[in-house]
Amino acid sequence: METVVVVLCWLGVFHSLLLGLCFLTSKSNNNSHVFLGATLIFISIRVAKSTLFVFTDHQSEYLFNVGFAAHAAIGPAMFFYVKSLDQDWIFRRFDFFHFVPAVLVLTATPLLTLDNFWYQGGYGGLLYYTVFYCGLYAFELDNDIRSKKLVDSLSPAWIILLTLIITVFQSAYFSNYVLGITSYTASPVTFAIGLYVITIAVLKNNAVFISDISQKYQNLKLTGDEIAAFRKKILEVMDSKRPFLDNNFSLRKLSEMTAIPQHVLSRTFSMEFKENFTNFINRYRIEESKRILRDPSKDYLSIAGIAFECGFNSISAFNVSFKKFMGLTPSAFKRTAVKNFL
pLDDT digits over 199-254, tens only? Predict the structure, then answer.
């Protein structure tokens, strides 16, 4: 039985590594490929560490730390893979901070040992950190599916299955060390089996996991007059129907209202408006909120009430967007508006 488990673990390592490299070296080279490929490679490193730890006498501290650093990077990489499925999302420089814990572990490799750090709370902290990211990317995926932000070519069912397999893989370590329910080898074995399901889906139709927006853009040829016409149509719909007040408003809904394909809309926002769909819509919402904040007859509305009335899903999203565009919070803006009115 032990031989079967060892074989399964090593098959999972090499299978995950090869599939990860396949995504990373794909011709379209978009964010979805990069983050999914990175996630699979980090998992292969983590499973290799686990397999060597259990089935060999190899006890290299360097190997342990590389494995733990990869473990710390799985959650953020998977989180950004899910984020990249939103056709309007853009990776920003400060997003690299999510990978700081993994980098710190790798940098501190000469100093960290099992006895002085990992068995003194470090490993437990890493596992709680992992569970946090599992919840974070699960929430993000649920939000994308509910708001219909996923690119059309993607299959929600397969994305959910992929997310579930990786979540079970990470949770098994937590279940073993923190809860004491499962064996240590449950995680790599479960992932090795689940990986075959993922591979079958990729071989059958790689669009179930990958957005092909970049390819659409490369093949899309629009004249200046066409772009200008699309811009005019978008602005007419925004001004006459005010769809931005709907907190579930999406690129797909705008496509339906304007009869312009989604990838053409995205291209128009990029070329003509010089910003993505989310920023474009939020500008309208912020302008509407400013009008309400200045209106004494709307004083009965709380900041949260104004946020929802203007189309935001939460007060935190409203505060972040308002400060981004205006440089101050909605409350501070209202105080200034009242002072100027008096």
Answer: 666 655 555 455 444 444 445 566 778 888 888 999 999 999 999 999 889 888 99
Range of the domain at 245: 220-274
Q: Tell if the pTM clears 0.85, that is, is over it.
A: no
Amino acid letter, residue 338 = V
Q: What is the CATH number of the domain that holds 304?
A: 1.10.10.60
* Nearest of 43, 65, 319 to residue 194 by alpha carbon: 43
Number of domains present in the structure of the chain: 3
Residue with tokens 């710190």: 104
Q: Tell me: the pLDDT tens digits for 19-54?
A: 888 888 876 556 788 898 999 999 999 988 888 887
d(CA 202, CA 66): 28
- Select from 50, 32, 36 the least CA-distant residue to 213: 32
Residue type, 199: T
Task: Spell out the residues 6+ positions from residue 105 whose beta carbon is closer than 8 angstroms to its own.
Answer: 65, 68, 69, 72, 112
Q: Are 85 and 159 in contact (CB under 8 A)?
A: yes
